[in-house]
Amino acid sequence: MAVQDPVAGPFQVFVRWRPLPASELPGTELQHSATQQDSKLSVSFSSSANPGRPETWKSGASYTHVFTAADDNSVVYEHVVAATLAHILKGVTCNFFAYGHSGSGKTHTIIGYDYERDQRLGLCLAAARDVFHALDRIIEFDMNRQADSKSRGEELGVAVRMYEVRGRYAYDLLNNGAECHVREGPDGRTHIRGQTEMLENGRVRVRPIAAKPCFSFEETRATILDGLAKRKTGSSSVHEESSRTHAVVELEVVNKTLLEARDAVIERESELVPVGKRATDIYLEEQMASLIRNSDGTYMPNPECPPNQTRIDAAEAEKKLYQDRLVAAEEAVVACFATTRHACLGGKFVFVDLAGSEYFDQNQQASTAPRQTMQEQKQGRQINTDLFALKEVIRARAQNQSRIPYRASPLTMVLRSHFEARGTSQEKPSRSAMILTVSSEEAMMAATRNTLKYGGLVGLAGGE
């Protein structure tokens, strides 16, 4: 039976139960079930620790589908991601989030751990595989039509970006973990600015997050695994090797013409820097030279030495020339989408492996969990702040509020462009879904309940 598009409408929320770890005794797991209510599911579970008075809990009807512990990554992919490939091939952005407490299986879901078997591939690698299969079919179709598909500009591939958000910064995993600044520009858009390079003739080049072009699935897989190896881990309230950052993996359909056009924009920006600085310096020099100091220390214009307006105008004209070159380069990027015959150009999968949600449990902290440092506790508070901000953004968007609180955290600032992305026709808004990863361990009952509550709020908002 064909799986319907899970993100064709509102923000959808899925639940995935993790199998009971081998270290746990059989019969000690939470007893859980799902109940259909109209078009949504509710989840309930009970503890078997006290057979006489079992603790029970039931969610509201907020979830699209509940995966059992027996469902592997391929089943999750088919239900959550597979149907959205058709949207990617129309230039749409599709976002997928994995949310849950530390150790619940988020990274296993998004990345996977067995990178050779299709059934064990994480969602991002399975999506990359299917994207390349689709691109191969597009190229084959072009060749059969004797089109110009072998030309340098129309060779289709996937640009991979991998970065993690930690605290107030983003860290580029495909550029040796370089620290990047998250800034909101005068255009209202969020910009992630990487390292500043000082070049010859006063040029200053500031590169965005590195985009590694890949033209095969094998190359994409190697790139993702290389970036994953640089991800930051630390101790959490559950275990000592927990992901303490929000990892973002972007897979964008590109061609070489688009890549070259974007590189040209970066170069034009670097060329404008010294010219713009020189124009500013000349203006200030002429203004200062035209002033004289009074006996009381104030300054007034010197009628005998007015500013050299010719020199100022020449510097401004040179600046305008380089500004026009930058605008032309930016227009060339836009033209790539307008002139290509491939609607898939710019289509993007965005997978976000959110850091483990932290819920402080004094008894658990005192008995079994690794002791956290003050810095690690601070990281945990920042993670929870990010996750709360994400929920509020999703709710505000679902309710069509006039103000979306993207600026509430660096994470939501980074994700803003993905939420607001549209296809090349400007009529195809981005699509999003969240997977809640939960554990059936009784020791994780409080964390599982809080994860389902969080997802329930998201699901209710998305369905409004």
UniProtKB/TrEMBL annotation:
InterPro entries cross-referenced by the UniProt entry: Kinesin-like_fam (IPR027640), Kinesin_motor_CS (IPR019821), Kinesin_motor_dom (IPR001752), Kinesin_motor_dom_sf (IPR036961), P-loop_NTPase (IPR027417)
Residues where ATP binds: 100-107
SMART domains: KISc
Keywords for this protein: ATP-binding, Microtubule, Motor protein, Nucleotide-binding
Record's compositionally biased regions (Polar residues): 30-50
GO biological process: microtubule-based movement
Nucleotide-binding in keyword set: yes
Gene Ontology molecular function terms on file: ATP binding; ATP hydrolysis activity; microtubule binding; microtubule motor activity
Region described as Disordered: 26-57
Any Gene Ontology CC annotation: kinesin complex
Domain Kinesin motor per the UniProt entry, residue ranges: 10-461
Bilayer-crossing regions: none
Top-level taxon in the UniProt lineage: Eukaryota
Keyword Nucleotide-binding applies: yes
Entry's family note: Belongs to the TRAFAC class myosin-kinesin ATPase superfamily. Kinesin family.
Protein name per Swiss-Prot or TrEMBL: Kinesin-like protein
